[in-house]
Structure formats: structure tokens, C-alpha cells
Design brief:
It is a single chain. Helix 9 packs antiparallel against helix 10. The N terminus is likely disordered. Strands 1, 2, 3, 4, 5, 6, 7, 8, 9 and 10 form a 10-stranded mixed sheet that branches. This protein folds into 2 domains: 121 residues, Alpha-Beta Complex (Spore Coat Polysaccharide Biosynthesis Protein SpsA, Chain A), CATH 3.90.550.10; 117 residues, no CATH class. The chain contains 10 helices and 10 strands.
Length: 277
């Protein structure tokens, strides 16, 4: 049975333009980390929406205890993380939203303020910033992100993390929901549809770090298992040149994945690892 909190929309400001969306299931400790990051923001005029997948670890009790001004939450069964993210998008009541799922954190206390300032200065249909890739697998922390120059960047894999991407509710409705038949690449497939739409959407690059991103998550663990899914995605949207370019991007990512896992094994064995460039 679905549960929905009987609260206000969540957030301190009635004129908020941004909703931070968090998808969670049985990850209370990680959810609390994300909440702490939100509480630290100097800009308080945003809303927090949590979509829970029927957690049994105390998550719902904890959310209820936050109080009606802090969060709006719903709980119900979903088919996948992208199904839950689609559900969340349908519940957003502000102009923009950003996915910051359980365990994700903003880089510092000024992120929401800088996002709002950027959107006020240069209104956009989608704004995206940099991500700090946290240390792991023998690699040091590093910052990733650059302005998208066009479809070729998307096919090669130069895409923003969805955790650092602010999407307008209007274009999400126009492009359509995430296709959750893509268990790993649904966010990138959505971007490919955006660029293939032929519509003159305005994109804005936020030239600062937005989110701390753990590189060892689901897509990292399932990289080779999802190979067929990846090539189905680029074949669905690309011409022969773009498919070749996407293949080159996949091969580069595959090399990095292999090196990272090799470094992890060496670290676990107590053997020295040369720091990556």
C-alpha cells in the first residue's frame, strides 16, 4: 500500500523554484547523510521530496519525525530506481528539480544558492554542473564536468552526472520519462532523446562543483554486464559515425573500469598502487 506524508510541499519557502528529489530504499544512514547536506545549505528556499521504495529499516519513521516543513515523502513499490525517479518527477511542484539520492551530498553549503543565482541570471531548460568523483579504487578524488558541445559529447560519454543536473519540469514532460528498460543507462538515454528532439532547448553550464559522487556504485559494478544495453542505446539514437564514436567512448571507459578494479585488488592485497594521473 502506498503511503504519502500529509504535509506541506516540503521546504521553508513558499516561492521555491527548486525541488531536491531523493530516492531511497532501506538506506537510512545514507539518507541521513543527504539530509545533513541539505540542512547545511545557506539558501533555504527549496523543497525536499523523498520517494521511498517501502523501506523496513526505520526510514519512514525517521522521515515522519522530521516534521511537516522539512520534507514531503511518499512510499510505495517501484520496478527500479528509474521507475522511482519517474514517479518523483510527476510529484514535483516547482519549476526545476534535481536528483540527489540517498548517500549523495552537495559539495559545500553554497551549492543551492549558486544554482538559484545561476538560474536567475541565465534562465535555462536544463542546467548542469561539475561533480567531485570521490577517491576509490586507488584513484584520488578529482573533479569532472565540462560544457556539452553537442551530440558527439553525449555519445562519447562526456555527460553530466544526473546528481549535478537541474531539469525543468516542463522539458522532462516534453522529452518523456526515463526508459527503465535501460537499467544502467536510462539517464544517458534521456539526454540522447533530448538532443535528438530537434527542439531549441537552452542548456546552461554551472562552472562549479555541485555534488560529491561515489564512482563505485551500480553502473560501475554492472559496467560489463550492461554492455548490450549500452550498444542498444547508441544504436537506437545514433548514425554510423556517432555509433563509432560511442564505441570509442565505451572502450575508453572499459579501460578505466579494468584499471580501477585492478587497483582495488592490489589495495586489498596490501600491495602498493601507483597513483593515477
Amino acid at each position: 500500500m502506498a503511503i504519502e506524508s500529509k504535509t506541506n510541499p516540503g521546504g521553508t519557502g513558499t516561492g521555491a523554484r527548486l525541488t531536491v528529489v531523493t530516492v531511497v530504499k532501506n538506506a537510512l544512514r545514507h539518507l541521513q547523510l543527504t539530509h545533513g547536506s541539505l540542512e547545511a545549505q545557506t539558501e533555504r528556499d527549496f523543497r525536499w521530496l523523498v520517494v521511498d521504495g517501502v523501506s523496513t529499516d526505520g526510514t519512514l519513521d525517521w522521515l515522519q519525525g522530521l516534521g511537516p516543513s522539512a520534507v514531503r515523502f511518499v512510499s510505495g513499490k517501484d520496478k527500479s530506481i528509474y521507475d522511482a525517479m519517474n514517479k518523483a518527477a510527476g510529484l514535483v511542484q516547482t519549476e526545476y528539480f534535481l536528483y540527489l539520492n540517498a548517500g549523495d551530498t552537495f559539495c559545500d553549503s553554497s551549492v543551492v544558492s549558486r544554482i538559484c543565482e545561476g538560474l536567475n541570471r541565465a534562465p535555462a531548460d536544463m542546467a548542469y554542473g561539475k561533480a567531485v568523483i570521490m577517491a576509490g579504487g586507488g584513484f584520488p578524488s578529482r573533479t569532472r564536468g565540462m560544457a556539452i558541445r553537442g551530440r558527439w559529447d553525449i555519445f562519447y560519454g562526456k555527460i553530466p552526472c544526473h546528481q549535478s543536473t537541474v531539469i525543468s519540469k516542463r522539458i522532462f514532460a516534453e522529452i518523456g520519462p526515463y526508459d527503465d528498460s535501460f537499467r544502467v543507462y536510462a539517464d544517458r538515454e534521456w539526454l540522447m532523446r533530448l538532443f535528438a528532439s530537434g527542439r531549441n532547448y537552452k542548456l546552461s553550464f554551472l562552472d562549479f562543483p555541485v555534488v560529491n559522487y561515489d564512482p563505485s556504485g551500480y553502473s560501475y559494478q554492472k559496467f560489463f554486464a550492461s554492455k548490450k544495453e549500452y550498444f542498444r542505446m547508441i544504436a537506437s539514437h545514433g548514425n554510423p559515425f556517432e555509433i563509432a564514436w560511442g564505441t570509442a567512448g565505451w572502450l575508453k571507459a572499459a579501460l578505466h573500469n579494468v584499471l580501477s578494479k585492478s587497483h582495488e585488488r592490489r589495495l586489498k592485497a596490501g600491495r602498493p598502487v601507483k597513483e593515477a594521473e
